[in-house]
Give the backbone structure.
Amino acid sequence: MHRNKILEDIEVDYLYHLGLDSSMNLKALFGNVKFVCMGGSPDRAYEFVKKIQERSDKTLIIEQFGKTERTSLYKIGNVISMSHGMGMPSILIFLHEITKLLEYAGCIDYIFLRLGTSGGIGIEPGTLVLTTEAVNSNFKAVFDHQVLDKTYSFPTNLDSKLIARIQSCVKTTSRLVLGKTLGTDDFYEGQGRLDGALAPLYTDIEKHDYLQRAFMMGVRNIEMESTAFAAFCVRADIPSVIICVALINRLNGDQITSTKEEMKHYTDNLLDFVAGFVYDQSDCIK
Ligand code: URA
């Protein structure tokens, strides 16, 4: 971990977006954490802890911490489940603050998992994608981070041992595919949609050509956080994985037309799979 030594001189560190600070007894509250599971939406963060609780036959309790304007942060056993909002700026804020929180709490050997929704490429809606590499719009495994007036290219390698551990949990092969995940800065133009508010900067043929090239490069889904998430975890030396469910096959269109029930089925698929993995891996959760 590239620890920030400046933090040692700050009397109380206010983790502003979490609504927690370092003067609290974070060791008592969070000292046992081994898994941090994060996804875009607050509802999903809660559904996830409910699924872990169901697996424990309701013996584990769910606690909620911090303020709720920007995130919902739950804890059950040694698992934190929290929302990170949409896009790289938002997830980066929460990655900084949750990592500092775990450091103040004295946590060791923890892992980060991102549970996301995504647009699939060449896969059916409902398919889970376990990310092998998070790539940028040029299909490079880097996150280009603008810091002051410099651009840094940070690597985005994910933890191959963790990927193999998760893969070994798959009971049916059709439910999960491995592939690269394209991290973009936008849902519309950034992902080659033609249904944004502004006249598109590309034709339908150019869009399809791009998506086909992405598929040929091994990309199986597109979302808006993967490269920033992976690069942060590499820099912080935190083993991490990304598992997303595809809500649409982008080779067939741009609009997400699934019903509420279908959507719930897809996200349940994702949450059940990851809750099963986390619950099985975690001895001290039980
Ligand atoms: N999230 C995205 O970023 N893109 C999609 O197409 C679906 C969900």
Q: What stands out?
A: The chain has a mean pLDDT of 95. The pocket of uracil is lined by residues 117-119, 187, 191, 222-224, 247-248 (CB under 6 Å). Residues 143 and 149 are 16 Å apart (CA to CA).
